[in-house]
Amino acid sequence: MSGVVEAAAALGYGFASALVPVVNAEAYAVVAGQPGGYAVIAVVALAVGQTAGKLLLFEAARRGTGRLTRRLARRNQSGRMAARAARWAEPVRRWLSHRRTGLPTVLLSASVGVPPLALVSSAAGTAGLRRWEFAIACLLGRVVRFAILALPSALA
């Protein structure tokens, strides 16, 4: 497979895996690291695709801030579920709203996977984290994660 085709496939797969949880980008990174492949191109393209998908979640959360919470509060007559969600959401939003704690959290989530990046992407969007800072931290973390996964296969 040529480098351009490999990059396009990895980019598309990365984007799909950012939005559909059953599509596993980590497995793609391991397979892309096989000898004779374009591991570096695949890792970078996979990370770019994942970051683009997570930016879509980030923007959706940013533009829809509060809508889902209000809708859930209307559905739940007792308000217990809304109170529980608010109790957890507010500290996370405060944590991500500060550069000193928000960016390392995004970087940790993107590289290690804890907390889940999909949740961090949505929370960072509602917390007001800058788009470009989120994108850089997410991209850097994803490149590190996928490179670590592809490296053993590439060196074998």
Question: Your description of this structure?
Answer:
It is elongated, with a radius of gyration of 17 Å. 81% of the residues lie in helices and 0% in strands. The protein has 156 residues and is mainly alpha-helical. The two termini are 20 Å apart. 35% of the residues are buried. Helix 3 (39-63) runs antiparallel to helix 8 and helix 6 (99-112) packs parallel to helix 8 (131-155). The chain contains eight helices and no strands.
Please sum up the structure shown:
The chain has 156 residues and is mainly α. The chain has helices at 3-19, 25-32, 39-63, 67-75, 80-97, 99-112, 117-127, 131-155.
Topology of helices and strands:
Layout: H1 3-19, H2 25-32, H3 39-63, H4 67-75, H5 80-97, H6 99-112, H7 117-127, H8 131-155
Helix pairs in contact: 1-3, 2-3, 2-8, 3-7, 3-8, 5-7, 6-7, 6-8
